[in-house]
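Homework help board

Subject: predicted structure for assignment chain

Our instructor gave us this sequence and asked us to write out the predicted structure in token form, then describe one feature. I got the tokens but I'm not sure how to describe them. Can anyone check?
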Amino acid sequence: MEKTNPLISIIVPVYNVKEYVVRCLESIAAQTFTHYECIVVDDGSTDGSGDLCDNFAATHDRFRVIHQPNKGLSMARNSGLKVAQGQYIGFVDSDDWIHPDMYRVMLEQLQACRADLIACHFHCCSNFDKNFPDNPPVACQTVNREQLFNLWMGGYIQHPANFEPVWNKLYSREVVAGIEFVPGLTSQDQEFNFRVYLRVGRVAILNQAFYYYFQRTDSITGTAYHGGPEKHLSYLLTEFKIQMERINYFDLMTEKEQGYVLGFLMRKSIKHQQTAKRLDKAELLAEFKRGAKVVEPMLLANTTVPLSKKIALYASAHSPLIFNFLSWVYNLVRR
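My token output:
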């Protein structure tokens, strides 16, 4: 192992994933880029996951394990950040796995583009397959911060690179320095990345899929999404309240960036209101309406938001049928 100054620090939070963690660590050990350290944070596992990590690290000298009482995903990642020595930071969740070329190609492209971070595409998987699909020839798109906000929050269609998770990215140390994950949040990745994005000048987007996201119904996100409609809606409300806090950072944004955020919040509010109405959840409906009342006047006053979008969002807010129709048309023309 390169004992001093590893170029990349890879942080892996672990909690009760004995069925998956060795698979994850093996995929990191198989990287064609070797100038890295892997910091495995055992967050108080009770199923033997910590022992598996110790055994793995004993035979792989780029890996080290930190054991701590259970504090949650955010605090596990923060523990890794505190001891990371690399010039670049990556995150891998312990039930997922990565392509052998992931960090080699991402670092090459990040440096070639002189970007602050790079995001790759990813595959959602329900079964493990060691045969990695072929990727297209390497191509990298570079965007500035306003363009990033537009790709992330400017429309209905999610960009294939997905700007919300932390695990499909490689960050320069400078852009994440001093930023920690907030404990107790269900959408800690979004909140962390939002504060990181406020610092970036240039972001690289890689066209290749190197990360394999394993879909489990018993994961944090899986439990929220598969625990029934009411639980899912409660999760969406918690997430929406966190997203609303982005308004508190408006003094750090351009007016155009503010417009992207406001449009995003308005669409979320309208969509979640429809769900609350369908489930007959008056209290949750009131919460989403309260958010819309804050966002709507700010959106209408923003001079960078096109009038057509203002009219569409305003009409949608006051007529769910219009929102459904506009969403359908927008998705149709974007195909």
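Reply (TA_rk): Your tokens look well-formed. For the description, you could write something like this. The radius of gyration is 21 Å. That's the kind of observation they're looking for.
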